Q: What sequence folds into this?
């Protein structure tokens, strides 16, 4: 790719952007990302970007709409300032759970967000662990979709937990849990859950042997914490000795951290796609960094190299 590599950040996760830039031995580009007095988002790119290969790092985490708007306006500003190529780096893609209609007269929000990002002028998207891979197809531009699973699995593997069993907390996560299990050389258990209403979950049934084992629940995101805590209770009831959890995106909405803090979970491992408050460590939540992986992906995209090596 012609043009200098530049990195900019919105206000959603500047620490991650800085870490990625450090891995690439560069600094985050200078930009004003703020608000006008009337509440509208204000963007001003200070550095010259003409002809450059620009990556904008912005997970669309809470406040989702605000962070999304910052991303859209930054892309627009870069486009109008004659950047050669703009890649939206979205480590956590908000609205991903609204990827289909579950009832009549509902929007498909994840598709609308994809349209907005494209319309703003993004040439590519780099993201991680989309709630469902089908969201890639909502974009008519290239999407590189990284996975945190190998990082999380290697970390858990290094803990040498005795007699581990990897647990999918719902039917939709079986593929993810199976890849994790293969990497660790452990067995698999599957929980069937139901959601009587949005943001509540109930364990229906479990398949697989967990008695006397160390269970590791693997999920893509933790929002209310309900899925995780219900799963941990069900595992302890069925005789698991200890329960750990892993997820890529620590959203921790409402009182999720206090629920997790009071639960049977020994430790919950997440990544830094979303910034965390200090409350997370008191809930025994440990964070590992995805910055080196994103930095490598950005360098490979910039140099037009394959990203396949990052998935092994
Ligand atoms: C569901 O399909 C997802 O994979 C997660 O299990 C879910 O989003 C977690 O949400 P919560 O923490 O609110 O139960």
A:
């Amino acid at each position: 790719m012609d043009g200098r590599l530049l990195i900019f950040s919105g206000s959603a996760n500047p620490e991650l952007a800085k870490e990625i830039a450090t891995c690439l031995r560069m600094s985050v580009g200078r930009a004003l990302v703020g608000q006008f007095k009337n509440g509208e988002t204000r963007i001003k790119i200070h550095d010259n970007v003409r002809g450059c290969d620009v990556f904008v790092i912005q997970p669309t985490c809470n406040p989702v709409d605000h962070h999304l708007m910052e991303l859209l306006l930054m892309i627009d500003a870069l486009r109008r300032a004659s950047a050669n190529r703009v890649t939206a780096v979205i480590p956590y893609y908000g609205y991903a759970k609204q990827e289909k209609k579950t009832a009549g007269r509902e929007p498909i929000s994840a598709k609308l967000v994809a349209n907005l990002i494209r319309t703003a002028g993004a040439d590519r998207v780099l993201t991680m662990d989309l709630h469902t891979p089908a969201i890639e197809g909502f974009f008519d531009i290239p999407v590189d979709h990284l996975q945190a699973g190998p990082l999380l699995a290697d970390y858990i593997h290094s803990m040498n937990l005795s007699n581990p069993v990897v647990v999918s907390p719902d039917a939709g996560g079986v593929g993810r849990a199976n890849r994790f299990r293969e990497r660790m050389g452990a067995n698999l258990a599957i929980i069937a859950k139901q959601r009587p209403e949005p943001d509540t979950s109930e364990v229906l049934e479990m398949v697989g042997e967990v008695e006397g084992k160390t269970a590791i629940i693997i999920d893509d995101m933790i929002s209310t914490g309900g899925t995780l805590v219900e799963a941990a209770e069900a595992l302890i009831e069925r005789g698991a000795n200890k329960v750990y959890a892993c997820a890529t995106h620590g959203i921790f909405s409402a009182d999720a951290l206090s629920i997790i803090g009071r639960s049977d979970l020994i430790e919950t491992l997440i990544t830094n796609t979303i910034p965390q408050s200090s409350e997370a460590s008191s809930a025994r939540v440990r964070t590992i960094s995805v910055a080196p992986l994103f930095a490598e992906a950005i360098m490979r995209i910039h140099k037009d190299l394959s990203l396949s090596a990052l998935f092994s």
Q: What stands out?
A: The radius of gyration is 20 Å. Residues 6 and 256 are 36 Å apart (CA to CA). The mean pLDDT is 95. Residues 64-80 form the longest helix (17 residues).
